[in-house]
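Lab notebook page, bench 4
Experiment: in silico fold of construct C2
Operator: M.H.
Input chain length: 451 residues
Purpose: comparison with the prior construct
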Amino acid sequence: MTPARWAALEVLRAVRRGELADVALAAALERLPPRDRPWVQELAYGTLRLRGRLDYLLGRLVHRGLDSLHPDLLDVLRLGAYQLLEMRSVPAYAAVSQAVEQARRAAGPGTARLANGVLQQLNRRLAGAARKTSDDDAAAAHDVVYDEFPDPETDPVSFLTTWGSHPQWLIERWLDNFGGAATRALVEANNRRPELYLRAIGVSTAEAVARLAEVGIAAETVPFAPAALRLATPGTLHEALRTIPAIVQDPAAGLVVDYAAVPAGSRIVDLCAAPGGKALALAEHAGYLAAADIGIRRLARLRENLDRLTGLPVGLVVADARQPPFRPVDAVLIDVPCTGTGTLRRHPDGRWRVGPDDLTALVALQREILRAAARVVRPGGLLIYSTCSLEPEENESQVEAFLHEHPDFILEPPVPGTVAPELLDPAGRLTVRPYATGVDGAFAARLRRNR
């Protein structure tokens, strides 16, 4: 069995233990040669992203049900099924035989026969469909399995939880909040592989594009997010970061910085700074920025970027956002902990990690952080509240409750020209939807302290 497949299983095991997928993946990739790393990321992240779809197909082939399986065996079957369905470069015989060996090693000799039987059945069905069409195997595979799923018109919840591969509680609330068409578009957006974006720091986007072109790296700007650069070839990331001063940042996160429009030379505190992209972007024009987070480990990535981007006026502080140790400053950013439902395409484990109880707990934590952050804003200063969530309880409702409780703050419209009008709600709050933009989701509100 190949080390790459074992590494993918290790990622899924770590996620089962409660680790974040990006942390688990980084640890697994360190032990592999560079040539194997993109393949492992595709396999591990793709399996997490389409887990609901894979489980539906596998559940029809495992007569005793998926709950009866050893957890490692279930993950091996998911990995094998994903290779058969999605990874054109993997021959079917290799996907099956490697999964059989992996099951034997991970879950015991008695599991190999079941793994072989289940995946061979799935492969025969896909191969049979391919023989009936002139399309390529991947298209045929999608056609045959799509027809076996619940009808999207008569049973949208079941369709979007199985084929759409999202938990039922999220689908039901999105259908209530956004409607059927937008929810289906959101699910489809979440199931696409995310693109790679940079934000240049200290140089213009035009200069950054020109410098990258000089070393053969194609990059293009994003029409609704002019500070963002899309790398046409993601494999060139490390060379790109050696060529220009930049950070990896989705356009949605960068739009929060643009929307904030903090005046140049301001003293800024970022109370929830990790992993640091917004803090570093704000620091480009700041007089000074204190980047705070609750633990030193959470600030590690920010420190790495800060060491690479020399000259930024940033200080790192370990602090609890609920008890900020700062005097009032010109602007405070709180990119609060949230459900992250706007970033599920980039963090595929998030859809399975977060539940309704987490939403309730996070709303309470956000409210506590908001109240504390208000004390750090000087009269006339700005408080920027932001999330990467799509849920109204974490966004609009949270801001409205804060303003009702704090009459010394007002919701201030954005500075004209900072963000495209179609990204603003009627109240002037930033509202980025993945199904409308093709990037992550984000929300932000500019709150001005008027006395």
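Observations: Residues 197-248 form a domain with the Alpha-Beta Plaits fold (CATH 3.30.70). DSSP finds 20 helices and twelve strands in the chain.
Next step: discuss at group meeting.
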